[in-house]
Amino acid sequence: MSPKSQSSSSSSSSSSSMSNSSSSSNSSSSRKKIVVLVVVVIVVVDEVVVVEGIVVVVVEVEVVVVVVVEVVVVHLVEVVVEVVVVLVVVEVVVVVVVLVVVVVVVVVVVVVVVVEAEVVVVVVVVVVIVVVVVVVLVVVVVVVSVVVVVVVVLVVVVVVVVYSSSSSSSSSSRSSSSSSSSSSSSSSGSSSSCNIVVVEKIVLRSRICLTENARTHASHGRTDDINLGITKDQN
Question: Which cellular component terms (GO) are annotated to the entry (predicted)?
């Protein structure tokens, strides 16, 4: 009889220790999560028009990035840094891909429409301008991402502070009734989490103009007659 009772008690203690370890691992795994739900890129070539020897290509790009973050209030700063990094990396990659698509479209239009021009000269000019535009867009994307994330996090912090203060006052009133209820409420309050949803939409509109007169001077190495301009509108 006695050895059977000893074996049963040891098995129950081991199962309780396993449940404790699983609960601790669950609480540590639910500390913070970053999930990029949607990254939508829409590239539309609005128009390709030749008016009085000028080739105009209008490309419109729309990017929607949605990031959902589950955070604990204590680790809010670390999660903000990670959200900014995710947004910046995603948007920089999207901008670079979009500009590569724009360059390919421009080169195709030049080859098809302005056949007699030196394609190498036009490609060099387009690449130089695209590099400058990439640098400017990366700076703009970083600034916009930081501002959006900071504003969202400030709003969440205010809501969480108000909610935590109200919950702490209610838990303190409950603690006067019984010590066990106060300990359970404090443990539940430490594991409270909140959700941050960041939605950022970027619209890029590129207008690229090429004059057909570039073919008359391309053989002499002159590129000043190439009217090449890129305008960006960001919403």
Answer: ASAP complex; cytoplasm; nucleoplasm
How far is Cα 21 from Cα 209, in angstroms, rounded to an integer? 65
DSSP structure class, residue 31: S
- Banded model confidence at residue 89, pLDDT cuts 50, 70, 90: confident
3-state class of 49 per DSSP?
Answer: strand
Asked if residue 20 is part of any domain, the answer here is no
Task: Count Cβ atoms below 10 Å from residue 125 Cβ, excluding itself.
Answer: 16
For the chain, the domain total comes to 1
Q: What is the mean pLDDT of residues 204-230?
A: 43
* Measured distance CA(188)–CA(191) in Å, rounded: 5
Are 70 and 193 within 8 A, CB to CB?
yes
By the 8 A CB rule, do 225 and 197 touch? no
Query: Is 102 inside any structural domain?
Result: yes
Residue among 92, 192, 183 nearest 133 (CA) = 92
Does residue 11 fall inside a structural domain?
no
The model carries a pTM of 0.36
Give residue 186's pLDDT. 42
Separation of alpha carbons 174 and 121, rounded Å: 78
Q: Which domain holds residue 96?
A: 31-174+192-220
CB 117 within 8 A of CB 223: no
What are the start-end ranges of the E strands in 29-180?
33-51, 54-72
Strand partners, 203: 62
- Work out the average pLDDT over 116-130: 61
Query: Is residue 174 over pLDDT 50?
Result: no
Question: What one-character DSSP code corresponds to residue 191?
Answer: T
